[in-house]
Design brief:
Belongs to the GrpE family. It comes from Equus przewalskii (Przewalski's horse). The strands form two sheets. The protein has a three-stranded antiparallel sheet with strand order 1-4-5. The protein has two domains: 101 residues, Hemagglutinin Ectodomain, Chain B, CATH 3.90.20; 63 residues, Head domain of nucleotide exchange factor GrpE (Nucleotide Exchange Factor Grpe, Chain A, domain 2, Roll). Helix 3 packs antiparallel against helix 4. 63% of the residues lie in helices and 15% in strands. With 225 residues, it is of the alpha+beta class. 4% of the residues are buried.
């Protein structure tokens, strides 16, 4: 126990000696550090420019910056005015094109229909009150040829402009393409739920139905017991 207490006492003495030596060394170096700081501060202050030059340089820089910004504002203003004018011109041209499209959009279709009207006019000229009885057969032949030519021309015009006639006989009933008129009993070769007869043809324009086909749909016949 005594040896342990002696060892602890020696440790305390060593710690006190070490702390006192460190304190003395710091106190001895403090005057030199203060002098060094003062010398450095005096040197830095001696290199600073005079106070009279600072504001003048700052004012010049601000004036140059203001002139530059003013030029940029003027340039942006001119660009904005040009963009507004160009946008207005584009809007007017677009509006004019839309109006022309509404008026002359069917110009090509009408031009083709004029040829159909010519054929129909020539066909009707064959029928007149002055036709002699012996010429009736010849007149009917001319009318038939004229009507056949008229039908062929109409089909050609429709195909050219994307107008397609639907032939739904045998197809499954579709309410988006067919208008149901009535139901008929399913016969031989006719499946229930399919179109058995077309009352009026339907038409599509570029794949879009513009007139429904009036149809009769086949159904299973009821068996009598």
């Amino acid at each position: 126990m005594a040896a342990r207490a002696l060892w602890a006492g020696r440790r305390r003495v060593q710690r006190l000696l070490a702390s006192s030596a460190a304190f003395q060394s710091r106190a001895w170096l403090r005057p030199f550090s203060t002098a060094t700081q003062r010398t450095a501060g005096e040197d830095c202050s001696s290199e600073d420019p005079p106070d009279g030059l600072g504001p003048s340089l700052a004012e010049r820089a601000l004036k140059l910056k203001a002139v530059k910004l003013e030029k940029e504002v003027q340039d942006l203003t001119v660009r904005y005015q040009r963009a507004v004018a160009d946008g207005e011109n584009i809007r007017r041209r677009t509006q004019r094109c839309v109006e022309d499209a509404k008026i002359f959009g069917i110009q090509s279709f009408c031009k083709d229909l004029v040829e159909v009207a010519d054929i129909l006019e020539k066909t009707t000229e064959c029928i007149s009150e002055e036709t002699e009885p012996g010429d009736q057969k010849l007149t009917l032949e001319k009318i038939f040829r004229g009507l056949a030519l008229l039908e062929a021309k109409l089909k050609s015009v429709f195909a050219k402009h994307g107008l397609e006639k639907m032939t739904p006989i045998g197809d499954k009933y579709d309410p988006h393409e067919h208008e149901l008129i009535c139901h008929v009993p399913a016969g031989v070769g006719v499946q229930p739920g399919t179109v058995a007869l077309v009352r009026q043809d339907g038409y599509k324009l570029h794949g879009r139905t513009i007139r429904l086909a009036q149809v009769e749909v086949a159904v299973e016949s009821q068996r009598r017991l």
